[in-house]
Design a protein that fits this description.
mainly alpha, 2 helices
């Protein structure tokens, strides 16, 4: 199990969630969580790998050069 969590810890966690949100609120929370995960997965698929910077290429992180002060007349 991830994070070294056993089945009894999961049962206790699920019971605490049911107590906090109620049995009727759990499907709504699961639906919102699934929608959020689907949106995240879609956004990750929209990333164009050709536009990503190559290692060592800092073209996208450069700051513009400072403007030269105007000479006073």
């Amino acid at each position: 199990m991830p994070f070294d969590v056993g089945p009894w810890e999961l049962v206790i966690l699920l019971g605490a969630l049911v107590l906090l949100f109620g049995a009727k609120g759990m499907p709504d929370i699961a639906k919102k969580l699934g929608t959020g995960m689907r949106e995240l997965k879609g956004a990750m698929g929209d990333v164009d790998p050709r536009r990503m910077l190559e290692p060592g290429d800092d073209a996208g992180t450069r700051t513009p050069p400072a403007a030269k002060p105007k000479p006073e007349d």
